[in-house]
Design brief:
Helices cover 47% and strands 13% of the residues. With 491 residues, it is an alpha/beta fold. It has four domains: 124 residues, Response regulator (Rossmann fold), CATH 3.40.50.2300; 163 residues, Rossmann fold; 82 residues, Helicase, Ruva Protein, domain 3 (Orthogonal Bundle), CATH 1.10.8.60; 85 residues, no CATH class. Helix 9 crosses helix 11, helix 12 crosses helix 14 and helix 20 crosses helix 21.
Length: 491
C-alpha cells in the first residue's frame, strides 16, 4: 500500500454512504480522506487541516444547492486550492455547469458505481499538480514583473536577488559576470530600478562596440577641436547621467589606456572632457558586466588589477541556464506569453513530456537568449494550441547532429567542478555510454590540475565526484585512467 501523501477534504451530506467507500478506494493511490457533512464549516476545516484538494458535493438536504456558495467562499479565501465538484445531479434543469466555472473539475458519482476509484484518483492528482504549477508560474512571473527578471528556485539566483536588495541603495560599483545570454543587462537594469536612483536615467554603453577614442569620447565627452571631426563640444555619459546609473557592458574589452582614465574616475569621481582641462564631478553609479574571466585577463596583463578591484566591490555572478534548469518552465511560460502577442496566437503553456525532455536535455550554450529565440520560433511554427517536438526543428537538428562529446562535455565538467553534478548524475545522464563518462572524467582531472598546478589525489577526486575512495579507485580502473602527473588513459 502506498504511503498517504495528499489530503482530500470531502464535503457531502451523504457522508455515511460515501466516506468509507472513497477512503478505501483512494487510499491505495496515496490520498487521505477527511469527511465533513456541514458545508458551513468548510473554511475552518481547510484552515485546520490544510488539504491538498476539496471534493465538494453540489446538492444538500432540502434541495439546497449549497455547493455553489461554498465553492465561491473557498475560492475567495483560498484561490489556489483546487476544488472538484461531485454530484449525482446532472439534470441541467437543476444543475447548470456555468454556475460552477470556479471549479477545477466536475465529477459524476455514477462513474464510481463499478467500485473503481482509479479515474477519480487520477483526476484529483491532475488538478493538484495543475494548481501547484499555476502557483509556481504565478510566483515566477510575479518575480519577473517585480524585479525585471525571473528569480526562480535556484539557490544561486536567490543569492543574486538577496545581494541586489542589500546593495540597491548603496553607491558601490557592481560587477556582474556570467556567460553570454544569462541576462546581465536585465540584472543591471533591475538593480537600477530597485535603487533610489530609479528616477534618474539608466544609460547603457557597450564597450566592445566602440574603439578607444570613441569610447573615451562617449564616456567623458570632448571639447571642440579635441580630435579630427570634433566640430563642437559633446557632453559625455558620465556628465549627462546625473544621479542615474551607467551600465558598462563588456567591460573586459576596453583598451589599457582607457582603463587608466576609467580607474581615475572610479577613484575620484572626477574627469575632464577630451581636449579640455576643466575638472568635472559625476554622481552617477557604475555597474559593469562581462562574460570574460577578468582574473585571467589580469594575470595576462590585459586588464589592470587595480581597476578590477575597483569594479568588483560587489560581485554578482549569474549562473548559466544549464545550472538552473528547474527554472526552465518559468522562462518557457513567460516566452510563450510574449510570443503569443507577437504571433497573435493562443498557445497554451502546457508542455508535453517529450517536449519537456527535449528542452531539459539540451545544454543551452546560448542560455536564456537562445531559449527565448527557440520558444518564439516554436510558437510561430505551431499548428495546434500545444507545442509539439516538431515545433522545435532547429533543436531537433542540433540533437541529431551534435554528439554528447561535442555538445555537453565542457558544461558537464563545469558542473562537476562547481559541485552541481557528481558521478551518479553522470550515470543517470549517459547510462551505458561509458566512453562519454570516461572523457568527462579525464577532462575534469585535467581542468582540476590546471587550476591547482598539481594532480588530484584519489581522495580529492572522490570528494569532487561524491563517491568513496574505494569506488573512485574502481572507477579509475574501469576507465583505464591513471592519476599520473598529467591525466592520461592507459592504452
Amino acid at each position: 500500500m502506498m504511503a498517504v501523501s495528499k489530503k482530500i477534504l470531502f464535503i457531502d451530506d451523504q457522508l455515511e454512504d460515501w466516506q468509507s467507500y472513497l477512503s478505501s478506494g483512494l487510499e491505495e493511490f496515496g490520498f487521505e480522506l477527511i469527511g465533513l457533512e456541514d458545508p458551513a464549516k468548510a473554511l475552518s476545516m481547510i484552515a485546520s487541516h490544510r488539504p491538498d484538494a476539496v471534493l465538494l458535493d453540489i446538492l444538500f438536504p432540502g434541495g439546497k444547492f449549497l455547493g455553489k456558495p461554498t465553492l465561491e467562499k473557498i475560492k475567495k479565501k483560498y484561490p489556489n486550492l483546487p476544488v472538484m465538484m461531485i454530484t449525482s445531479t446532472m439534470d441541467k434543469t437543476e444543475y447548470k455547469p456555468e454556475d460552477y466555472e470556479l471549479a477545477d473539475y466536475r465529477y459524476a458519482k455514477a462513474a464510481l458505481a463499478d467500485g473503481d476509484c482509479a479515474d477519480l484518483a487520477g483526476q484529483l492528482e491532475r488538478i493538484i499538480t495543475a494548481a501547484a504549477m499555476k502557483q509556481s508560474q504565478s510566483t515566477d512571473i510575479g518575480d519577473q514583473e517585480k524585479y525585471g527578471f525571473i528569480v526562480g528556485a535556484t539557490p544561486a539566483m536567490q543569492n543574486v536577488l538577496q545581494t541586489m536588495k542589500m546593495v540597491a541603495d548603496q553607491d558601490h560599483t557592481v560587477l556582474i559576470t556570467g556567460e553570454s545570454g544569462t541576462g546581465k543587462g536585465i540584472a543591471a537594469a533591475s538593480l537600477h530600478n530597485l535603487s533610489n536612483r530609479r528616477k534618474g536615467p539608466f544609460i547603457t554603453i557597450v564597450c566592445a562596440s566602440l574603439p578607444g577614442d570613441l569610447l573615451e569620447s562617449e564616456l567623458f565627452g570632448h571639447e571642440e577641436g579635441a580630435f579630427t571631426g570634433a566640430i563642437s563640444r559633446k557632453l559625455g555619459k558620465f556628465e549627462t547621467a546625473g544621479d542615474g546609473t551607467i551600465f558598462l557592458d563588456e567591460i573586459g574589452e576596453i583598451a589599457l589606456d582607457t582603463q587608466v582614465k576609467l580607474l581615475r574616475f572610479l577613484q575620484d569621481r572626477q574627469f575632464e572632457r577630451l581636449g579640455g582641462n576643466t575638472v568635472i564631478t559625476s554622481r552617477a553609479r557604475i555597474i559593469a558586466a562581462t562574460n570574460r574571466d577578468l582574473e585571467t585577463l589580469v594575470k595576462e596583463r590585459k586588464f589592470r588589477e587595480d581597476l578590477y578591484y575597483r569594479l568588483s566591490v560587489v560581485p554578482i555572478r549569474l549562473p548559466p541556464l544549464r545550472e538552473r534548469k528547474q527554472d526552465l518552465k518559468a522562462f518557457i511560460d513567460l516566452f510563450i506569453a510574449k510570443a503569443n502577442k507577437l504571433s497573435n496566437k493562443k498557445i497554451l503553456s502546457i508542455l508535453r513530456e517529450d517536449v519537456l525532455n527535449l528542452l531539459g536535455k539540451y545544454p543551452w550554450p546560448g542560455n536564456i537568449r537562445e531559449l527565448e529565440h527557440m520558444v518564439y520560433q516554436a510558437v510561430a511554427l505551431a499548428d495546434g494550441n500545444i507545442l509539439q517536438v516538431n515545433d522545435f526543428p532547429s533543436l531537433c537538428a542540433k540533437n541529431r547532429d551534435a554528439s554528447p562529446l561535442s555538445r555537453d562535455i565542457d558544461s558537464f565538467v563545469d558542473n562537476i567542478l562547481q559541485g552541481a553534478m557528481d558521478w551518479e548524475d553522470l550515470k543517470r545522464e549517459f547510462g551505458a555510454q561509458g566512453e562519454t563518462r570516461r572523457e568527462i572524467l579525464l577532462q575534469t582531472i585535467n581542468r582540476w590540475q590546471e587550476k591547482h598546478k598539481k594532480r588530484p589525489s584519489t581522495r580529492e577526486l572522490a570528494g569532487l565526484l561524491h563517491v568513496s575512495e574505494g569506488n573512485m579507485r574502481r572507477i579509475l580502473s574501469e576507465c583505464n585512467i591513471k592519476l599520473t602527473k598529467i591525466a592520461v588513459a592507459e592504452h
